[in-house]
Amino acid sequence: MKVTTEKLPKSLVSLQIEVDRDQFERSLDQAARRLSQKFPIHGFRPGKAPRFLIERTFGRAALIEEATEDLINNAYKKAIQQEQIEVVGPPQLERIDSVEPFVFTVKVPVPPTVTLGDYRSIRVPMSVEPITEEMVEAELRRMREEHVTLQELDEPRPAQQGDQVRVLLSTRVEDEDATTEGEAAEEDANGESEAAQAQEDGEPTGSEETLDLEPGHLVDELYEGLIGMNIGEKKEIVAVMPDDHAEESIRGKKVTFKVELLGIKRRIVPAWEELPSLVNFEGTLDELRAKVRADLEEAERRRAEQALLNAYIEQLVEQTTFDIPDVMIHELAHSLLHDQEQQFARYGITLEQVLQYRGISHDQAVAELMPEAERQTKVTLALSEVIKREGLAVTPEEIDAEIERILADYEEERRPQIRETLTTQLLSSVANIVLDKKLRALISAIARGEQTAMTTEAAQPDASEPTVEAVTAEESSSRPTNET
């Protein structure tokens, strides 16, 4: 069998295959038997009529047409074995060049080609922001707020600091540029713009809000105006938004709050000394404060390292040359869409319902995900190539150590069952966790200029850190199927 190959862009190979004459004739013999089974010839049992009679009855062209699919499939399988071509997707029949001799051309996707640049020269600064005392106190206040309880008032009284109030609230930005033709900029209780709503009478629509009367939780003027109000009382409160307000469009502008107080509840805030026990911390408030600081510092370190890794990977992809078959990207886009389908299913929504609501087809939804699928494919391929270049590998001892680390998070009585699952069903996932940690550590060292020589050993990062999703690209060889 004669095979001519040609390398094409996007990791495609064109194969022009000429079938041997003997193979061609054997295929015609088999086609004749199939035709005689489908259309029995008088005087012969089904499948027993001689080929010359079948060919004379139906014509040689019909015989060749019947044989074509098997000819292509069988010749294609032999061709990729003969040429030792690894394929990553189904072939596409381009054309039948001639019938006698039987010559056809197919295009097949092959593994992608990845050419790394000088990935060891990439440098990314690691910026860790300091944890201030204000940040520690804010976290402690957040923890205490989680344990606040609400209590109805025993007797009516005016609103006071520490209360939670329910109000009917509407706001207007008193600025000609901000409101036109009766439109009002609707604000939340903190003065943050939500939407501009047109009203028939030019007044903004009120919305029911629940506000905590604590300094710093609300705009100062609104907070001060609410203090002392009684249930059923209405008031207009004018405030000037600070120049550092989160909503840039209303900085320095005058805002009128129209408030009707609907209800008051007393917020019972636990004493600071009670906080450690409330959060199941065995220690004093000062010891809890120290732990909070340490946790915030660790979280900031992780954030900074993740930012470093993201920036490094972005530069790595930019300087890498890729030749990727479209089928690989399309398959990932399809997988991403059906990951979304599983998320929808948690809320009782089907993918078909979502697509119908959006007015798009399944193929259009896949097409929308192609850019993200291409980005993820490039990241995975580039990191896989780094793994290969660096010779990163995982040993059984490292897998065992990772399993022990995972088991430490479970109660002792559950560990045997979890160990069985990890060592059988999830062993490859555990190996990937270890490999990802090694890769994270290597990238971090390279980016900071600490790794200048090629090595197969990378320092292990802290086990609690999130991992970079980078696994060696799976080599797949799909069973050839042809369309004629």
What brief labels describe this structure?
five-stranded antiparallel beta sheet, Trigger_fac_C, peptidyl-prolyl cis-trans isomerase activity, alpha+beta, EC 5.2.1.8, Trigger factor, Chitinase A, domain 3, 484 residues, Alpha-Beta Plaits, 14 helices, ribosome binding, 13 strands, disordered C terminus, 42% helix
Explained architecture:
- Residues 173-215, 452-484 are annotated as: Disordered.
- The chain is built from 14 helices and 13 strands.
- With 484 residues, the chain is an alpha+beta fold.
- Among the domains are: 2-110, Trigger factor ribosome-binding domain (Alpha-Beta Plaits), CATH 3.30.70.1050; 113-147 and 272-323, no CATH class; 149-269, Roll (Chitinase A, domain 3), CATH 3.10.50.40.
- Strands 6, 7, 10, 11 and 12 form a five-stranded antiparallel sheet that branches.
- A hairpin with a 5-residue loop joins strand 8 (183-187) and strand 9.
- The longest helix has 34 residues, at 285-318.
- The protein is elongated and about 110 Å long.
Give the topology.
Elements: E1 2-8, E2 12-18, H1 21-38, H2 51-58, H3 60-82, E3 92-98, E4 103-109, E5 113-115, H4 133-145, E6 149-152, E7 163-173, E8 183-187, E9 193-198, E10 207-212, H5 220-226, E11 234-240, E12 254-268, H6 275-278, H7 285-318, E13 321-323, H8 326-345, H9 351-358, H10 362-368, H11 370-390, H12 396-407, H13 415-423, H14 427-447
Antiparallel strand pairs: 1-2, 2-4, 3-4, 5-13, 6-12, 7-10, 7-12, 8-9, 11-12
Helix pairs in contact: 1-3, 2-3, 4-7, 7-11, 7-14, 8-10, 8-11, 12-14
GO cellular component, one term: cytoplasm
Catalytic activity: [protein]-peptidylproline (omega=180) = [protein]-peptidylproline (omega=0)
Function: Involved in protein export. Acts as a chaperone by maintaining the newly synthesized protein in an open conformation. Functions as a peptidyl-prolyl cis-trans isomerase.
